[in-house]
Design brief:
Shape of chain B: globular
Number of strands of chain A: 9
Strand content of chain A: 35-45%
Helix content of chain A: under 10%
Number of helices of chain A: 0
Largest sheet of chain A: 6 strands, mixed
Number of strands of chain B: 11
Strand content of chain B: over 45%
Largest interface: A-B, 27 and 24 residues
Largest sheet of chain B: 7 strands, mixed
Structural class of chain B: mainly beta
Distance between the termini of chain A: 28 Å
Oligomer: heterodimer
Number of helices of chain B: 0
Structural class of chain A: mainly beta
Distance between the termini of chain B: 40 Å
Shape of chain A: globular
Order of helices and strands of chain A: EEEEEEEEE
Helix content of chain B: under 10%
């Protein structure tokens, strides 16, 4: 059971806009920034979004992030076949057991 | 280019220990922290802990306290993660990742991963 909650799957057709949600609590998303990772099959994760809505150099502007309260979202516009991957949200958690990094369970994105 | 290169796959028996290395290149090693993240087969990502390459300070996930030790060797720009008393549920791909300097918890460079299999 992951601390951050993501839908296990999402799908869309090429060119569509897809959003992936990430729900947490006051000790993680509610008080810290959210980061998003993309993991293509058989490869290491790649930082996609940091500090809620910042893109590292080289990440297309089709990818965007947002945060409101204890939830965050990743949006992918102009969906492409190469976007088919697992997506994970992550944030620091300041609970009694922490501080530590918590991940969502991951969302498998299928491009139909 | 900036990269992290990890040591090769390991097969261990239950109760044994494993030590995975992560060699950094292309940047000033002591200017960034390193986290270790693992991923069991078919499962999600699990953060194991963090070490400052500047002063060696560590922060371990509570569930691994007492079994994990993270260290660095600044002379070779290498980080190490040792996990003891291995169990079958420690079977996973282990990644090292550089922490983005401006954003704690954001990992911008990842190693290629090291598969650790625990089996009798």
């Amino acid at each position: 059971q992951s601390v951050l909650t993501q839908p296990p799957s999402a799908s869309g057709t090429p060119g569509q806009r897809v959003t992936i949600s990430c729900s947490g609590s006051s000790s993680n998303i509610g008080s810290n920034t959210v980061n998003w990772y993309q993991q293509l099959p058989g490869t290491a994760p790649k930082l996609l979004i940091y500090s809620n809505n910042q893109r590292p150099s080289g990440v297309p502007d089709r990818f965007s992030g947002s945060k409101s309260g204890t939830s965050a979202s990743l949006a992918i516009s102009g969906l492409q076949s190469e976007d088919e991957a697992d997506y994970y949200c992550a944030a620091w958690d300041d609970s009694l057991n922490g501080p530590y990094v918590v991940f969502g369970g991951g969302t498998k994105l299928t491009v139909l | 280019q900036v990269q992290l290169v990890q040591s090769g796959a390991e097969v261990k028996k239950p109760g044994a220990s494993v030590k995975v290395s992560c060699k950094a290149s292309g940047y000033t090693f002591t200017s960034y922290g390193i986290s270790w993240v693992r991923q069991a087969p078919g499962q999600g990502l699990e953060w194991m802990g963090w070490i400052s390459a500047y002063n060696g300070n560590t922060n371990y996930a509570q569930k691994l306290q007492g079994r994990v030790t993270m260290t660095t060797d600044t002379s070779t720009s290498t980080a190490y993660m040792e996990l003891r008393s291995l169990r079958s549920d420690d079977t996973a791909v282990y990644y090292c990742a550089r922490e983005l300097g401006t954003t704690p918890g954001a990992f911008d460079i990842w190693g290629q991963g090291t598969m650790v299999t625990v089996s009798s």
